[in-house]
């Protein structure tokens, strides 16, 4: 911003200063209009004369410095001057002369920030962007309050420059807060330039670029969609003949490449190539942006080659990369990208031609790109990644162990490069796992551990429960990580680590959410202040994650920023706690010793279904875990088995109750012989477990959809004595994770006077399901069986609303719920109980915290079965109640027939409360035994599939 010399003095020298200043302004204006360099040179000459006449003591010295610096800076921006150091130094001198109390301090601060930003953009000097970002943090309040307040004509332009500074700082150092702030400011700039504004296209592009960066860093689908829309609007504002059309074509093409790489739609890459070809025609030889257009066209062709394997695409990509590289100076800030892009293409060519010279050139280019970057530069990740591909390709041809070692080392460097975004690093870690497993490399367990750490960090950046699941399910193949990691540890004969790994990855969503509900009694006795601090942060984080789902992107961004701010405070508090004696492992992944507490009342059996092996691990009350291989069942067998169960259950539901269930009998015999019998043999002969003892099943992956508890030999030959089934031998319960069972046991210490509520909704609203005619009679039956020592209440009919049911869950320790239940296969957090007005969802339940709750009987359909996308997460209604505080739960695996369910309900409560006299204690830990007795008692009244449907979860 050019300054105006004050004309307060009338001396001859002042007249000369004024004359030269006016001449400089006139020449600079002519330069801006005509872009003739001679005008700029004349302007600089006049401003230099003014400065020579204004020594440091002169009142207009700082103004003269500003005019000269600004003119030289604009010449640098427009590529007419190569010197950026002089204007930067001049602006530093001005800022030193105008401290914070000076009225022109904001202007001086702004000018220096702009100079440093442009020097970074063209020279990519990390120190420049660090300094400009530091100055920005000082400038922002001045900008919005003093220099360019709301309504100021230059405010959009100032915001534009600040967005550049912040985004550049993010790209150098990976601070997501800088990127979020750049998006917030970018949105404001777009708002201030509505449709019809001459500069709207520039502000749309600036915002889109920031959103694209955030998509690359965090992988949020909404950011990608919004980026495409913004670039499409920008292109519409730059029709044929517009000076910025080439840039708009290029930007839209690049984001379409990103979307193609994410979703694989061939129309995206075809459109991208078309856009980049048009952009290149607008940048003929000699055009300053031709090198960029060549690189990006090559990028699109390279992407299509990897999809369709058309060699012509690869050959043209290599030619375009080479031409782009020839046009780039060695100090060009983007040269490293063309280097590693060409390296990647040459690696692909090597796989086609087997020419060593291609692979050797590829290695050298990658090394050259790394040499050009600072140690923390995010783009080092890409060079590491391409070096990994190069060495792997070379290894596959020559089988030199050194190549494999170098590939693994670059996997390690790429996945651990902390300034690169989590999505890219996770993808690299997943590839590391695959290659380490394929080549049986010693780093496989390290690769699995890296995946878990990155997933935890990535998911915790999301500020809502639903968005965390979206983040966790966005990576193909990641769902099998926990079981594959455990299988790897088993093959390495490390059963303790297998248990730790399967727990760390299994039920990740519950583990992350439960961190905000950690019991703090022990911490309170060690440090009341820290306990109160973490408790308050837990509450604020829970509130923040609930407020981050706004449909308004700006509101959602602000909520996400606040969530991250609280997360940093929470992390700092956790670090303080870990410094305390006896709290060094506070909220860290549990060790085997921690997890073994789940087996305090009986062994826990983890069933692992991996592509590499199928097995079970028995965790005893004390001592070492025991491994049981299940070699006779493959992963395909298990998937077929769960599908056959689903068909058999559907078939049984339309059969009469007296017809034999032959399909189910065959399937349950298979479960017994191939899965549970080897486990039972170990329990009996190795652990000497007495019949009637309790056991807990913790199934993973494909095992989660199989009714393991109902395994039965179903002997039919009359000459053989009857062989007992699993439920004849042991009292079976399930647990979603070992940590969930440990946590429930810890919370059992809080016993209060029991209160029992029955909740029933047999007449849901229109379109919410058929009437359940037996609900009222079921509630009446339960109330008769509940002992008088409990405070009893009932909610049904019009009172059984979403709000009424939630309140009852919060206020009572024992609950019996009879209604329709629905598991949502697409979004499991929307699974729900059907009430009179609105659905009572799993998300509603999870947001409640009822530590005094004890028992819930869910007499509803589909309350204990997970979703297809994340079977290991066990995200269902029963698990949600356990998370909210209920320790012992009866849930259902499939549809419940309310006409016969009442027989199971009656037998269950009769056994549970049998012999309970006045003054006795209602004990929810007897629920598993009572269900076992009930299913035996109703064999003649209830068909097999309706006895099997009920399962026990928890203590």
Automatic annotation (TrEMBL):
Signal peptide start-end: none
Pfam families documented for this protein: CHAT
SUPFAM superfamilies hit by this protein: HCP-like (SSF81901)
Domain of life assignment: Eukaryota
InterPro entries xref list: CHAT_dom, TPR-like_helical_dom_sf
Domain CHAT residue range list: 669-915
Protein name (record): CHAT domain-containing protein
